[in-house]
Amino acid sequence: MSTGARNPLGIHAAVFAGGWSPQECRHAVSAARATGYDVLEIPALDPSAIDMKDTRRVLDDAGLTGVCSLGLDIDADISSPDPAVAQRGEERLFDALEIAAGLGGGYLGGVVYSALGKYNRPVDPRGRDNAVAAIGRVAARAAEEDVTLGLEPVNRYESNLINTAAQAVQFIDDVGAGNVVVHLDIYHVNIEERSVAEAIADCGEHLGYVHVGESHRGYLGTGSADLDGLFRSLADVGYDGTITFESFSRAVISPDLSDRLGVWRDLWDDGEDLARHAREFMAARLSARA
Ligand code: MN
């Protein structure tokens, strides 16, 4: 049974903005607020593109919490067996951690353990060892800054390292840090897991952040992802953490991120209408289960 605690509802900034100029920051924050969200997830693929202090001020003025997510690059990848490539990936994570800590939301998640993209071979065991060691070092610094690190299992076309909740939990056990959690995304669950309920059971006490997205990454309820099963299972385990809506359209996000995520067609062009619809969809299912 649910504890009845209200989950903070978040939205990925890519619903509103393709970059993070001062104007894009202001637009995304005001749109997230206008459409009823508590949390804004800001992509930090390029941490140097984010003016942390300005963003924090704009978030604080709007009463929103800012968190960060990213995927690493093939040439800056902590799961590479090449020490120089792994080192660049770790530096990227430390830069993103500084942004996440400065925003005050206390969370950095996503494909932080691997490059975000299609690998053409299985993970190298030395590369996995590099990733476990690097996440351990980043987690230690994150703990000093009160930041939680989330490992998001993604489908096989976006990483070769963590595709399932069970693999994420195994990785967390290998790291052995208390501030690393599973960041579960129903879009990826729909591709890789046996069922939503079993994926959430596999997370156990490690579930710490949730992404809600349709099977085609468009309007909720118009695809094949088991969204009712997701909200039922979250209530069953008493999940009271953040639930963030994520959706991508070439109409808004950068060509680079569109290409890496395989977003080849537009499922929507009005981010605010999409956001409002998703907010109502999620709130209705949460209140039905409270
Ligand atoms: Mn996601």
CATH homologous superfamily heading:
Divalent-metal-dependent TIM barrel enzymes
Count of discrete alpha- or pi-helical segments spanning 4 or more residues:
10
Strand order of the largest sheet: 1-2-3-4-5-6-7-8
Amount of helix: 40-55%
Reported for the largest beta sheet, the result is: 8 strands, parallel, barrel
- Note the run of SSEs as H and E: EHEHEHEHEHEHHEHEHH
- In angstroms, what separates the terminal alpha carbons? 8 Å
Q: What class would the helix/strand composition place it in?
A: alpha/beta
Unique bound compounds:
manganese (II) ion
Count of β-strands: 8
Shape descriptor:
globular
Q: How many separate structural domains?
A: 1
**What is the C-level CATH assignment?**
Alpha Beta
Radius of gyration: 17 Å
Describe this structure in words.
- The chain is 44% helix and 16% strand.
- Strands 1-2-3-4-5-6-7-8 form an 8-stranded parallel barrel, surrounded by 8 helices.
- The longest helix has 21 residues, at 83-103.
- It contains 10 helices and 8 strands.
- Strand 1 (9-12), helix 1 and strand 2 form a beta-alpha-beta unit.
- By secondary structure, it is an alpha/beta fold.
- It has a single domain, classed as Divalent-metal-dependent TIM barrel enzymes (TIM Barrel).
- It has helices spanning 22-34, 52-62, 83-103, 125-144, 165-175, 186-192, 196-203, 227-236, 255-261, 271-289; strands at 9-12, 39-43, 65-72, 107-115, 148-151, 180-185, 207-212, 243-245.
- Helix 1 packs parallel to helix 2 and helix 2 packs parallel to helix 3 (83-103).
- Bound molecules: manganese (II) ion (MN).
